[in-house]
Write a structure and sequence with these properties.
- This protein is α/β, with parallel strands linked by helices and about 270 residues long.
- About 50% of the residues lie in helices and about 15% in strands.
- Bound molecules: nicotinamide-adenine-dinucleotide.
- The site of nicotinamide-adenine-dinucleotide has 29 residues, from helix 1 and helix 7.
- It comes from Actinomadura meyerae.
C-alpha cells in the first residue's frame, strides 16, 4: 500500500460516523495518517474502540471513540459535543454510518422499515450537520462529506428505504451546499463502490460472488475502502476542495457510467 505524504489534514478535527468498519474505518485511518484528530462515532462499542486504538497506535493520532447510534438525535448531538469538548472544533464531518436495510418490494415496505431507513440515512446526517455547522461557520471553514449510493441514483430494486434516504441525503447535500456556500463550509457526497467487511466475510466463503462482483466493475475489481475510497474523502476534507461544493463524486471504478446489474430475489421478505 502506498502511503500518501502526511499532513494534508494536520490539526483538523474530524468526526466519522460508522467508523468501526468498512469505508468509515478506511476514512478514519487515512484521516489519521494525514494528521487529523479523529472522533470515531460508532454503534458497535468493540469495533469503535478498536479503531480509535489503532489510529493512535499506528499513526500516533489523537483519536477518541464515542459510542453513537446515529438514529438517536440526542446521541448525534452528544457526538458533536464530544469533539468540541475534546478539541474545540468540528472541521470535518463524514456521515457514513448505515445498517438498516431490507430487501423487499415497494408495495410491501412497512412504515417502520421506511422510518428506520430515513432515521439512519437522512435524519442522522441532518442532525449531525445541524449540530456541526455553527462550529464550522464560527471558524469560517468546514467540510461535510455524505456517503450516498448508486442504489439510489439508479433506483435498484428491493431497497426502497435505502434508495430514498440516500437520494434525500444527496438533495440535503446540495441544499446545504448552496445555503452554506458563503461561509467557507463545503458539502459534498461520495457514491462509493467498495468491499465492506461484511462483503469480505461473505467472499471468504463464496469466492465466486467476489469474482462476479469484480468482473462486473469496469475496472475489473470492486474497490478497497482504505485505498480507493478514503483518498477521495481526504481530498474532499482538504484545502484542495475549497471551491467544490454540492457535488457527488462516484468513487466506483466507473460502475455508475452504465449502471450495475442488480436483480435481487424479491420473492421472500426479509
Ligand atoms: N460498500 C459499498 O460498496 C457502498 C456502496 C454504496 C454506498 N455505501 C455507503 O457507504 C457507507 C459505508 O458502507 P460500508 O460498506 O463501509 O458499510 P459497513 O457495513 O462495512 O460499515 C458500516 C458501519 O456503520 C456502523 N453502524 C451501523 N448502524 C449504525 C448506527 N445506527 N449508528 C452508528 N453506526 C452504525 C456499523 O457498525 C459499521 O461499523 C454507508 O453509508 C453505505 O450506505 C457503500
Amino acid at each position: 500500500m502506498s502511503v500518501p505524504a502526511p499532513g494534508r489534514l494536520a490539526g483538523r478535527v474530524a468526526v466519522v460516523t460508522g467508523a468501526g468498519d468498512g469505508i468509515g474505518r478506511g476514512v478514519a485511518r487515512r484521516f489519521a495518517a494525514e494528521g487529523a484528530r479523529v472522533l470515531v462515532a460508532e454503534l458497535n462499542a468493540e469495533s469503535g474502540a478498536a479503531v480509535a486504538r489503532e489510529l493512535a497506535d499506528e499513526f500516533g493520532a489523537e483519536a477518541r471513540f464515542v459510542r453513537t447510534d446515529v438514529t438517536d438525535k440526542a446521541q448525534v448531538h452528544g457526538m458533536v459535543a464530544a469533539a468540541v469538548e475534546a478539541w474545540g472544533a468540528v472541521d470535518v464531518l463524514v456521515n457514513n454510518a448505515w445498517g438498516a436495510g431490507t430487501v423487499s418490494r415497494v408495495e410491501t415496505k412497512t412504515d417502520e422499515q421506511l422510518a428506520r431507513g430515513f432515521a439512519m440515512g437522512y435524519y442522522g446526517p441532518l442532525w449531525a450537520m445541524q449540530a456541526a455547522f455553527p462550529h464550522m461557520k464560527e471558524r469560517g471553514w468546514g467540510r461535510v462529506i455524505n456517503m450516498c449510493s448508486l442504489n439510489g441514483v439508479n433506483a435498484h430494486m428491493g431497497t426502497l428505504e435505502y434508495n430514498s434516504a440516500k437520494e434525500a441525503l444527496r438533495t440535503l447535500t446540495r441544499t446545504a451546499a448552496r445555503e452554506w456556500a458563503p461561509t467557507g463550509v463545503v458539502v459534498n457526497a461520495i457514491c462509493p463502490g467498495a468491499k465492506s467487511a461484511a462483503f469480505r466475510r461473505m467472499a471468504s466463503e463464496h469466492p465466486e460472488i467476489e469474482a462476479a462482483a469484480d468482473r462486473a466493475n469496469p475496472m475489473g475489481r470492486l474497490g478497497d475502502p482504505e485505498t480507493d475510497i478514503a483518498p477521495v474523502a481526504v481530498f474532499l476534507a482538504s484545502e484542495d476542495a475549497r471551491y467544490l461544493t454540492g457535488n457527488t463524486l462516484f468513487a466506483d471504478g466507473g460502475a455508475h457510467i452504465n449502471g450495475v446489474a442488480w436483480t435481487p430475489d424479491l420473492d421472500g421478505e426479509q
